[in-house]
Each structure stands twice: as structure tokens, then as C-alpha cells.
Amino acid sequence: MLIQKWKNFKILLIMDAAAMETWFEILQDKYNAPYFTQTELSELLTDAQIDYVMEFVTPTEGAPLGKLEKTIYDAVALQPLIKKVTVTASSGGFITNDSIETAVDTLETLTPNPIVILPLRVRPKNTGITKAARRVREMEIDELLDDTLSGLDAGWANHKERIEAVYLLTNDSSNNLGIQLEPSASFNAASTDVVVLRMPIPIQVQATAVDCELPDFTHRKIVAKAMSATGIITEHDALLLMEQKTNG
């Protein structure tokens, strides 16, 4: 059975969930490793694609989940996961993660509901701002805006000075995780465009298959990561074997 799968696979260019399962089995056979159930394999591939996505997120001070690298490669690889939604801030200029995820869910109607990894761009729409807000650390706000927040709010309202909008990833008084726009009084109920990176949907290799939604060129690496997680073979060696079998 696997021999026939392999013959068909040499000319296969698009790797769906079934093809990812075939690659995984081919690599298992080479090392005489025990087979995993389809449920186990689905979990391995799902975890591997999350690991793949997180490779593009760079930890940075002041941002608990980091920031996205800015290269052509990650822009293409992660394109299906980057979504723009419009949400409304609270009276204190706070936007909860829950409201963002609800907006993404309304946009895409996915099952399960999407989980937002981090915001990539935040721009209030109804305050006269012409560019996206800048993400900062809490300790930087006063220094960046060059005044106390109360003084800045007054200056903004009177249009005596143009104040750069900034935001923090933080918690509100109810411990909801989200985005705090500053100066807060300037963004009461502000309609805000938020571009986010969301989590990929889980891969399923069962009868009701769910294919990996990332581009085809990422799929071999995801399979290699799944193999590496089993301890059977390293990610690097799995990639080399797949390349050899494709070109051989």
C-alpha cells in the first residue's frame, strides 16, 4: 500500500492532509517506528504548524507575545492567517482580545473559533489620526508623548499639538487581556482597525479531513516538525529525506 502511495506521491505537488499523512508514514517506515493513530497524527501536525508559525514571532520587551518578523517569506507563508477587522474601543480606550476574536470569527466563521496570537497593526479611525498607532512599553508612554497623560489628553482635545497614538498589550481593570490605546481619553469608543495574526485551524487526517491552510511550500517543514516531535528523527534529517525521495 505504501509503495503505491509513494509512486503516486512522486508527482504530487500539492500536499493535502492525506499527503501529509503519507509523508509521515514513509518516514516512520524508514525507521521501523510504531504507527500513530490518525487522531494522534492530527495532533502532531497541528502542534507542528503552530510551532512553524511561532518561528516568525520574535520575543521583544514590552510585548508578551513578541512581534512578527517583516520579510517577504513570512508575509507569504502567514498570509492566510493575517486578518483585518474593525472593533470599537471601550470608554477608556481599551479593546479586549475577546472582541477582536469575535470580529475575526464573524469574518471567517471558522470551527473552532480562531485564536488571535498578536496584533500587527492598530489604527483608530475616527480621531483624525492618519497612521497606525505605535506599540510601546508602559514605561515609555510619558517619555514618548513628552507629558503626563492627563496633560496630553487635554492638549489633544484642544488640538494644540499633534499627539502620536500609542498602544500597549496589557490587562484592563477587570483583568481582560487586550489593547490599551493612549492617550485613553482621546479614544473613547473609537472605531479601530486591527490587523491580527491568528492561530491556524487544526489539521485533521481522519475521514473528515481538514487540510493545512498554510501555503503548500510550508507543508514539508510542518511534517518534518511533527516527525521531530516524536523523537524518531530530527527536523533537519526529515526534510533531507523528503527532498531526496522527491528528487530521486
What does this structure look like?
- Mean pLDDT is 81; it is low at 1-12, 147-152 and 154-161.
- The protein folds into 2 domains: 2-55 and 214-247; 79-198, no CATH class.
- The protein has helices at 2-9, 17-30, 38-54, 72-77, 97-108, 141-145, 149-157, 219-230, 235-247; strands at residues 57-60, 63-68, 82-88, 94-96, 116-124, 134-135, 166-171, 177-182, 191-198.
- The longest helix is centred in the first third of the chain and has 17 residues, at 38-54.
- Strands 4-8-7-6 form a 4-stranded mixed sheet. Strands 3-9-5 form a 3-stranded antiparallel sheet, covered by helices on one side. Strands 1-2 form a two-stranded antiparallel sheet.
- It has 248 residues and is α+β, with helices and mostly antiparallel strands.
- A hairpin with a 2-residue loop joins β1 and β2.
